[in-house]
Design a protein that fits this description.
The chain is α+β, with helices and mostly antiparallel strands. The protein folds into 3 domains: about 90 residues; about 80 residues, P-loop containing nucleotide triphosphate hydrolases (Rossmann fold); about 45 residues, no CATH class. The protein is about 50% helix and about 15% strand. The protein contains 7 helices and 6 strands; from the N terminus they run αββααβαβαββαα. Helix 4 links the parallel strand 3 and strand 4. The longest helix is centred in the N-terminal third of the chain and has 31 residues. The chain is elongated. About 5% of the residues have low confidence.
């Protein structure tokens, strides 16, 4: 009986220590992600430690008073702590910014970038804006980040190809294409030259659109590109 009591006491103490550690890290993650304040409860069921969350004011469930985006970042904070307290392994995110506004998306991007310093991170997303924001965090160290495009080719689905960026239209890229057109037009016949000039005007218009997207709207809205 004494050994059983000692074992049970040790188990309870271990669970309490784990819970306190989890709660501390959870509070830190919520702060980083700017998540609403919630309390954690660890009632335990059938010998398993479980967590229940409640909004601080009134002990109400998060789903009763918080928006979908607020619930999303709370769940993300929970996931990050779970990963933190387990042995290092790749962390996989599947469109983690669904239902999040621009400000919260930026916070998630920053957190994922920091997380990648200590472990492998894999992100699946359909969101081009989110992708470009993530890639921007690695512009000075591109060797630490790889981008892959998953596309369809006719009836073939799920073709994975390595790329550098989901969007090809940048001011620098378009400027280079315009310069190439000018050089080609100088050596072309007048019919070809006229076609190249027309194409050049299209690219100049594209540059104006890119500047509006990136500088004026700060990426809030972007044009549809079939190649993306």
């Amino acid at each position: 009986m004494f050994l059983r009591s000692l074992t049970e006491t040790s188990k309870v103490a271990g669970e309490q220590l784990l819970n306190r550690d989890f709660e501390r890290h959870f509070a830190e993650e919520c702060k980083v992600l700017n998540a609403p304040a919630v309390t954690l409860q660890f009632p335990g069921r059938q010998g398993q430690v479980t967590r229940e969350k409640a909004v601080v004011s009134g002990e109400r469930r998060p789903s009763d008073v918080l928006s979908e985006g607020e619930q999303k970042v709370i769940a993300l904070a929970d996931f990050l702590v779970e990963a933190l307290l387990k042995p290092p392994a790749p962390d996989i995110f599947d469109d983690p910014i669904n239902s999040l506004d621009y400000k919260r998306m930026a916070e998630v991007v920053n957190r994922i970038a920091v997380l990648s310093d200590t472990r492998q991170v894999i992100v699946f997303t359909h969101n081009i804006w989110f992708t470009t924001e993530l890639l921007a965090r690695f512009e000075r160290r591109p060797q630490d980040c790889s981008y892959y495009d998953v596309a369809r080719d006719g009836t073939n689905i799920g073709i994975v190809s390595k790329g550098s960026h989901p969007r090809s239209d940048t001011v620098s890229n378009l400027r280079g294409r315009i310069n190439a057109l000018i050089q080609s037009a100088e050596k072309a016949s007048w019919e070809v030259e006229a076609a190249l000039i027309e194409k050049g005007y299209d690219l100049i218009w594209n540059i104006c659109e890119v500047i509006v997207e990136q500088e004026l709207f700060q990426g809030v809205t972007q044009r549809y590109q079939p190649s993306c």
